[in-house]
Design a protein that fits this description.
single chain, Rossmann fold, six-stranded mixed β-sheet, alpha/beta
Length: 498
């Protein structure tokens, strides 16, 4: 019996040693797991060694078709078998001006492609047909129109829109029906987070957090003067995220700065006086805002009428339709951050000049509003960014040789593309967010705009301040889009997506 107990104890000991060997991780294994966790946690940090590679494709001005007949007000779809694209924006209602901007940008790229004879997809050359998809700035209408575009019109892609709440709806519908949804105008980071990500939606626009961090980088690392900031943004996901991005950036690049006030207002209000009174009393040196038209126009007009002449650090307070109303003095010192433009002279190569003149020469011939207005004179800023993002989609289709969503995804994930001015953009594969740098400019009087508009007439606008000799580049590695660590596709990736 004693011998049996001894034998049993020995057997149990051997079993325990075996179990520990099998089920307990070795130090090497534990270290490997820990590294993986730490890598996931660091997913939003830049790898210093990462550099831009040669782009996979670039806008080639030499291939442009005859643009002399382009007029967005007189668009006619080509006949036959076409690539069908829904231009999804508010085309009516209080934000209809944004829909007109979107239509002009997409139609410019489509007209060019059509003048070339189309692009080779699905076994033959096809031209582009465009369909106005009016969201009316309403989420229920957005869902209806996107479903109609896919199920009745048979569109191959949805391009939009101003309003992150509306883009979210378009992405959801597109992912349900497995159709490409390209976000060129809505900037909220949450659109591509773990909750909202879909394989068929691509965010080729910049993002709220990147914009905010870019502006904070300018004030903390370049300008190094003003320290007291007041945040005033629209009260929905975009406005809230714009504010969070700026606050995130101040902690990162300007920790000694102080936020002396923070407010959020409803969309499309007409009376900003209560907010402006608080700004006056706060001791702020700069107002940071993400407002877009019509709010951006009303905000600046009322501020200047109340004698508030401090700088507004902004993304969208650059619409000349209202800047010329305010005049040169009232628009000086506005600090604008932009995604398409580059610091320094605007026209540095023949391709950029040809792209610019193709748009500007056509604009001179137009005879109908809203297009025959100052905002459409120059294909820069938001117009340039939306237009070149559209070209990016058509380039991806051309290289995929297909309108099939799965083939488009295969090409677009990890793709790099170059704009005519040299700006590089990269589609991060794991979360479909675009990586890109920015230009920050302090608006100056017309006489100083020659440094930017470096060909006759040597100013952007004679009736308002605009971009001139005070411009700076914000490198892409300083404003890499935030990556959601909960999105399983991104686990183990660095902020460049590698």
């Amino acid at each position: 019996m004693k011998s049996f107990r001894k034998s049993l104890a020995i057997l149990m000991g051997i079993f325990l040693l075996f179990a520990m060997a099998v089920y307990s991780p070795s130090p090497a294994m534990a270290e490997k797991v820990e590294k993986k966790v730490q890598k996931a946690k660091a997913a939003t940090k830049s790898d210093a060694g990462e550099t831009w590679s040669k782009p996979n494709a670039a806008f080639d001005a030499n291939k442009m078709g005859d643009m002399s007949g382009w007029d967005p007000a007189k668009w006619v779809n080509p006949e036959g078998d076409t690539i069908k694209v829904a231009v999804f924006w508010p085309h009516s209602g209080p934000a209809a001006a944004n829909g007109e901007l979107g239509w002009a940008c997409v139609s410019f790229a489509a007209h060019d492609i059509n003048q070339r004879g189309g692009i080779f997809v699905d076994g033959k050359k096809k031209k582009i047909a465009l369909f106005r998809a009016d969201s009316m700035s309403k989420q229920d209408q957005a869902k209806k129109i996107c479903e109609r575009m896919i199920l009745q019109e048979g569109v191959h892609a949805i391009i939009g829109t101003s309003g992150s709440n509306l883009m979210k709806v378009a992405n959801e519908v597109a992912n349900r029906y497995k159709v490409i949804s390209q976000n060129i105008g809505a900037l909220s980071d949450e659109l591509q987070d773990a909750t909202n990500f879909g394989r068929y939606s691509f965010m080729s626009s910049d993002t709220t957090y990147s914009i905010g961090r870019g502006m904070a980088y300018y004030y903390g690392q370049i300008r190094k003067k003003e320290k007291k900031f007041y945040i005033l943004c629209q009260d929905y996901s975009f406005g809230r995220d714009m504010a969070e991005g700026f606050k995130m950036g101040l902690k990162e690049y300007y920790p000694e700065a102080q936020i002396v006030g923070e407010d959020y207002h409803k969309l499309f209000i007409t009376d900003f006086a209560p907010y402006l009174e608080k700004i006056k009393a706060s001791g702020a040196e700069v107002v940071y805002t993400g407002d877009w038209i019509p709010d951006a126009a009303n905000l600046l007009k009322q501020a200047r009428q109340m004698g508030i002449m401090m700088p507004f650090a902004n993304l969208f307070i650059d619409n000349p339709d209202f800047l010329v109303e305010i005049g040169v003095e009232g628009t000086k010192n506005l600090v604008n951050i932009k995604h398409f433009d580059k610091a320094g002279p605007a026209f540095t190569n023949p391709g950029m000049i040809k792209y610019y003149k193709a748009w500007n020469d056509a604009w001179k011939k137009w005879d109908s509003k809203p297009y025959k207005t100052p905002i459409y004179k120059h294909p820069m800023g938001t117009l340039g960014h939306w237009t070149l993002q559209t070209y990016w989609l058509f380039s991806v289709m051309e290289r995929a040789k297909s309108t099939n969503a799965e083939k488009i995804i295969k090409v677009w994930e990890g793709d790099t593309y170059q704009y005519p001015n040299g700006r590089l953009v990269k589609m991060r594969a794991c979360d479909h967010k675009a990586i890109q740098g920015f230009r920050v400019a302090e608006f100056v009087e017309p006489a100083r705009q020659k440094a930017s508009f470096n060909m006759p007439p040597y100013n952007w606008y004679s009736e308002a301040s605009n971009v001139g000799d005070l411009t700076w580049e914000i490198p892409a590695e300083k404003v890499l889009p935030v990556m959601d660590p909960k999105l399983d596709r991104c686990v183990g990736k660095n902020a460049w997506g590698n």
